[in-house]
Amino acid sequence: MVEIRKQVDCYLQNQEKEYSTNGYDREQINFHEKTVQNHIQAIMLIDHELIYLAVASSKTILSTQLRYDGYGICATNVQEIIEYGEGWECVTSVCICRNKLFASHVEGISVVSLESCQCHVVYRSKYAKCTVVPFKNGVLFTDQQKATLYQIDEEENINIFAGSETECSLDGLDAECKFKQPMGIAMEFDNVVYMCDPQSNCVKVMTPLLQTAKFLSAIGNLYDAFSVHKKGQNAPKRTLQEAESKITECKRFLSELERAVRSEEGCSNTSLNGLQGMVFAATVKSVDLLDWGIRILKSLLSSMSFEDTSLLSCMTLDVEHFYSKSHVKHPFLSKKEYCRDFGNTVKETTKRLSSSSFYYFTSKKNLHDIPLSALPSIPPLSDIKLPKRKSAKCEITH
């Protein structure tokens, strides 16, 4: 083992020197021709070793095999597939489907037959920046200008797959959902579609699995309960009663799902996590904790007849702001100090987070003159005579 380790160390040192001499980067795919590596516009992984590249300098689509030499990745056996003209200008995405190459460029999407090398435009949209991926027997592509996801079938007919050609951010069925700026797109199991919508700051999931859609909808009740919304949306402010109802609905769904898993033969003692699980156990515990907490909060505020609550203030950033305010004063809080300091921390943090102003009146006589010209006009405060405090009689017993 010692001799093998010495040989491996010697080999890695030689590879490191070779990479340094050739100007290779261990974290990138290295080509012998630097012009290829520096002008790659689009890339597609065909399998775990074969990739297709669109190279701007030579206006060609290349294929190459990847080889791992124990230190880095090198591109070998580079071959030219087709050569495209100036009309494509900038290739943004490529994919392979049914022995045809689909390429997205500034003029739209072109289809190239890999057998005859014949090329024609199947979708025209100038500067739409489409992203193409294979989907079953066709191709899916995004159009940022129309904010819609389209599908090209076997006969090269184009239909709307999801979206309504209206820029908005709305979840729901494929015919009802809306996007703001669909860009990146990926496939899983040939029936689950993931799409990146950067303008709404989220990743959309489109799936035909009914149970998966129900699970995501149930978990979405938690976001709705605390008025958490996506960028570009206006979430309604929920009351404590409405939030409790939505959290309870989510908890009921997870409980039914757990009972369904437990009722299966041989799954009574099976963990909810892992490959055989249906839902993470941590999710079930977290929802139980939220349900318990919202009930306690409701019972405390109901005694004070206080209903003007904003559950969005319970989010992580606000809670951490409370913690940091108290932690600055007491780096190592004991339980007693935390309870004693909690009230003052809430008051001071509320003043910092809220848009309000405070006027303090201490005495009619001031030590320094007040520059009235630099201050906004404040109505004078009327004199208030405070009632005299009656002395309380106390009895001391031993």
Task: Write a concise synopsis of the structure shown.
The chain has 398 residues and is of the alpha+beta class. It has helices at residues 2-22, 34-38, 210-225, 240-263, 281-302, 316-329, 335-353, and strands at residues 29-30, 40-45, 50-55, 60-68, 73-83, 93-97, 100-105, 108-113, 119-124, 132-135, 138-143, 148-152, 158-162, 185-188, 192-197, 202-206. α3 (210-225) runs antiparallel to α4 (240-263), α4 packs antiparallel against α5 and α6 packs across α7 (335-353).
Q: Main attributes?
A:
398 residues; alpha+beta; 5-stranded mixed sheet; 4-stranded antiparallel sheet; 7 helices; 23% strand; extended; disordered C terminus
Descriptive notes:
The chain has helices spanning 2-22, 34-38, 210-225, 240-263, 281-302, 316-329, 335-353; strands spanning 29-30, 40-45, 50-55, 60-68, 73-83, 93-97, 100-105, 108-113, 119-124, 132-135, 138-143, 148-152, 158-162, 185-188, 192-197, 202-206. With 398 residues, it is α+β, with helices and mostly antiparallel strands. It folds into 3 domains: 1-83, no CATH class; 89-208, TolB, C-terminal domain (Neuraminidase, 6 Propeller); 210-334, no CATH class. It has a 5-stranded mixed β-sheet. It has a 4-stranded antiparallel β-sheet with strand order 6-7-8-9, with no helix packed on it. The chain has a 4-stranded antiparallel β-sheet with strand order 10-11-12-13, with no helix packed on it. Helix 3 (210-225) runs antiparallel to helix 4 and helix 4 (240-263) runs antiparallel to helix 5. It is extended and about 95 Å long. Residues 391-398 have low confidence and may be disordered.
